[in-house]
Structures are given as C-alpha cells and as structure tokens.
# Entry
Amino acid sequence: MADRFRLLDVYLSGGLRSGELILLGGPQGLGKTTFALQILRHVADSGRSVVYFSFEHDPQTVLERLIAIEAGAIAGSAGVSLNRVREALEDSDGLTGTLAERLAHTEGGAEALQVLQGYGDRMLLHRSSGNSTSVDVVRDVVQEVRTSTGQLPFVVVDYLQKMRVPNGSAVEDERVTTVVEGLKDLALELNVPVLAVVAADKEGLVSGKRMRVHNLRGSSALAYEADTVLIMNDKYDVVARHHLVYNVGNAERFHGWAVLTIEKNRSGLDKIDLEFEKRFDQGRFEVNGKQVAEQLVDERVFVE
# Structure
C-alpha cells in the first residue's frame, strides 16, 4: 500500500472522513498541490476511486508529479527527479522507446509506472476551468463515478477560489461563501470526503509571517463550514527567534521543512503542529513526519 501521512491520520482520529469538508491552505509555492496529490494517490492505491478537479495543472504535469512521487516512495531520496521524469515525458532526454524504457535506468522510475498502472483506473483527472466548473459540475462528476465504479470517490478541488459561481456576486467573499457552502452540502449529501485547496489572502502571502486560518482568501465561512482545516507554513518563517540566533545553521535546515498545523478538527485534536521534510526535487514530501519540537511564533523576527 502506498506511503501515507500516518502521523496526520493519528491526529485526525483515523484520517479524512466521508461527509466532511477539509480545507488545505498555505502560502504560494509551499506544496499544497503536492501534499494533496500525495493524499490522493494513497487513497487510490488503497482501492478507492478518486477525482481530482485541477484548475491549474494539465494531465501531463499531474502525471509527472505522480511518477516522481511513486519513485520517491520506492527508492527514497535516490529516486528519479521530477525534472528527469519531465524530460522523459517530453522526449527531450535524447533517448528513444516507450516511457518505461526511457525510465528503465533511473532509480524507481520504471517501477513507479507499474504502481501507477495498478491504480490509474481509479483516478480521474478533471481538467477544470473557472469559466465552467461549478459545484453542480462536481456533483455530476461524482455521480458519474459512482454509477461507473459502484463506489463514491474521494474528491479533491485544487483550488476552491477558482470555482465558477453561476450568476455570482462580483464580491469575492460572497462567491467564496457560496462555493464553500456548496461543497459542504455536497459532502454531506453524497457522503464523500471533499478536500479543497485554498489560496491565501495578501496578508498570508507576506514572507516571514505565519499563515493562520483567518488568512484564507475569502469569507469567514471557510473556517465555519469546514470540518477540518490544515494550514501549511515554511518552518523557517514560523520558528521562534532563539532557535536561529544561537544556531545560525538552523536557518538553512529549517527551510527544508514545512509545518502542517491542524487548525480545526471536529473529530479530534486541533492546534497540533506537525512537520514534514520537503523533497521538492522529487515533487513530494517525506511522509514520515513528526511533531514540531521547537517553539513557533506568528512572525519571524530574525533576518538572514
């Protein structure tokens, strides 16, 4: 079975539940999509259908990431890099043959393709658009998957603020309220888990400032409607000053980790800070995380 974020499952009292809306927020470029894809591929590998509503990434980009993620799970840090996978898919590696043949001499590449083939028929990528993909479209796709597979899928929306609101207000807070309420109703109505990636507001994008639930872009309905809220931050941006002043070498090391905070959790504990090591050259996080040992603050007061 695919690697999973076991420590997160523990604090969520078993994982993400059907009928619940889960929000995943964080600053731009910190790996929200990466984290969501790692959850998605674990669910698919465990035997459940999944639907990924992607507003920003085309199928080839998603495939690149999944191959690199699987290779990392197989070969660890020695696994083939995301750039090398991209070269193979784009036929720019100077090699010939099938994709499997192009990746045959990489660490974990060919094996990653075999793993993907094992769960690929349970994973549906929906190329979504802000001009057409609404909550009603999500509902229709989920119903189609149930009809064709006999099971309700795990749903990921990447990301929430880009969803279409038919005849919606020009005010973003009102549109976000409509979308988040619609996704929550959908999760309850169809008894599916819905994981929605959420963008940060301008304040949440400021370097050196810890993003919190109130920095999710849109209305307060985001925090109110969600059953679980997960917020990502760069560890360096949120660690207390004394961990940096007395050990300057920590600065570089902390940049290599992301802090995932369980800000809200209706089914268990919240205000829990976990950390996961970045392996962005492979398009993934190490799944074996741990609780943050250092003191965290809301704003960094140390400048390199």
